[in-house]
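worker-03 picked up job from queue 'complexes'. Input manifest follows; two sequence lines, order preserved.
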Amino acid sequence: MSDLLTCETIASGYLNRPVLHGVSLTLPQSGVLALIGPNGHGKTTLLRTLSGLLPLRQGRVTFNGADISRASVHKRVAAGLIHVPQGDQLFTEMTVEDNLLMGAYLETDSAVIARRLDEVFQLFPKLKDRRHQTASGLSGGERRMVGIGRGLMADAKLLMLDEPSLGLAPLVIEQIYAALDQLRARGKAFLIVEENPSRLLHFAERLCLMDAGRIVWQGSAAEARASGELLSTYLGGH
Amino acid sequence: MDVFIQILITGATLGAMYALASVGLSLIFGTLGMFNMAHGLFMTLGAYAAYSAASALHLPLVLGFVVAMAAGGLIGVLTHLLIVRFMLGTPDFGMNIMVATAGLAIILQDLILKTYGGYPYPQPVRVDGFTQLGGVTITFQALVNVAVALALILGTAWLLMKTRFGRAIRATAMNREAAMLMGVKADTVFLQVMALAGMLAGVAGLMISTQATLSPQMGADPLLKAFVICVVAGLGNVWGAGVCAFGLALIESAIGYYFGMRFGFPTMLMLVIVILILRPQGLFGREKVVRL
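worker-03 finished. Artifact:
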């Protein structure tokens, strides 16, 4: 099994409200897969299902060769499947450092934790200056950095980011994506969800287009850029 | 001066009991989002368990204390495993669990009544002797109560603020889903919180019974006061609950001294009304903590 993550016709949703209707997709061991599409069509639901917050109703999820369809959330985290949720969801009354340390909750070796903390601070030097500040006092960009950094503190094999550019100024989005680019260069795998695909058309290797709980198109970024009709139909002509 | 010392001693003794009761209550509310109406009975059970251990098995004092703590922890764990676990995450959890734990309290109280009878017993697990400070008599029991309560509260604070275990509890209280995404088993954290709060309640019950007597309804008054303290502190604010417990106990004992004990609690309630008008989220609370 050479693929990192495989979803086979998975269905899921909320009480009395099915959202996903047979989604299948595959992620290689490294690189960026972008999941794009309009709001309210199941992108976040897919991530929540993959991380185990929502139960799978049908289908199968394989991660790193193991069937995790029924695995609990913490088992998936331990396996390296890390979900950075939409809107950061920080522990607002904890310090930046405690937030980051929570990310390494399952790691007990303090030397490893210290090394990872160092790596996060290298990636986001701003956080080092603010390490003893409460998370609620941070700017939107800094909060996003803590959210992503917290995800990195776990030994992530796959980082699933839900709208990493949501609510940020263009300049800050640049910084976030520059950091993601560095991580990508180190061989990390990403599943990135965005509503606005313009950036991902150039950042991701592969794109999946989601509509009404189904993947309606998938292909390489070059194919997506070449397909003018696709873009104008689903993405409003970017 | 003697009056001042007297008020201080009475206040500290009351405060120690209130603090132990309300810290646990606050911890449960902050983490699980539930009012534990059975918290008073956790205290009563702790007190009776110590009584039984001492009178039937003739255990030494320290073991009586351990038994009270264990009994409180055990009932906390059982409450979670048999009741709370099945209701968590259901619609209207906050209201339903209040009714469920109130029902549990009634059952437990009747069981105690049936087992021990309604006659008030003196608590055999106690420290005898007293000392004089100025013209004021201070019992060793009061000193022991204050010391033990302080040690337990500081221990709890250390656990919550400085350990990985405590960090997981705080994270779960602040954002349950995010904590789960870090690999925290929320169910386990809830169980641990119920055990910890139950242990504190068990000790609180033992202390209350050393100051008065054992009776099946002995937990009702401290539960009411612990609720008041938690509301004043800001629901779910554990640290604030500890501080407010001592503050309100000092006020209660001062009012009690000057105007008579029967005015202590009413004045406390008046003060609470004023505080809540001025600061609806409580003295130490943040608006978002209030979920009712």
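worker-03 released lock.
The beta strands of chain B are 130-133, 136-139.
The mean pLDDT of chain B is 90.
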